[in-house]
Amino acid sequence: MPETLTTTVQAVHQDSNHRFSKQAVPTIALQSGLGVVGDAHYGAKVQHRSRVKANPDQPNLRQVHLISANLFAHLATLGFQVQAGQLGENITLTDTAGLDWYALISLPVDTQLNFAQGPVLQLTGLRNPCVQIDNYQKGLLAAMLDKTADGQWVRKTGVMAVVLQGGTVQAGDSVNVQLPAAPHRPMERV
């Protein structure tokens, strides 16, 4: 993979309530260290309900959720109909410059996404699909998990990030994907 790639924002989403899917909006505002303004997962401390129960003082490594739109085409080949925002992501990216769903989840920890209007995100890990996904479409949980030849889990549900620099993001914005210095660490679930 080259040291930098460029992709584009296809759509942005937010929801002030803890629902499975998020509503499409024209623009989202990102605030440094906190996430998407007005979203249920906004905050310096963990906001995901099950993680809050376990330890409400954990840092929020899941401020922004991103998915490649190419994932929806992949799921269609498996018999599922999923559209942007329906898996709860804040930012849906297009599949340009080879950044399809698998390339996105294969990026290393600390990869930075530099958005056209100034925001900078830093990838923290993979979103782990939960049982709620089967409430959305029966059998989708199994479709979102796979195993490599050596038995490692492949979690297809996108990546999580923290906001390093705030600003606005909207459909059509270009995104410069910058890898961290080597050695690279693979992302794990967060």
UniProtKB/TrEMBL annotation:
UniProt cross-references to PROSITE patterns, sorted A to Z? MOSC
Q: Where is the MOSC domain?
A: 23-178
Fetch the InterPro entries from UniProt.
Answer: MoCF_Sase_C (IPR005302), MOSC_domain (IPR052716), Pyrv_Knase-like_insert_dom_sf (IPR011037)
Output the superkingdom of the source species.
Bacteria
GO MF terms listed in the record are: catalytic activity; molybdenum ion binding; pyridoxal phosphate binding
Spell out the protein name for this chain.
Molybdenum cofactor biosynthesis protein MoaC /MOSC-domain-containing protein
Q: Native species of this protein?
A: Comamonas testosteroni
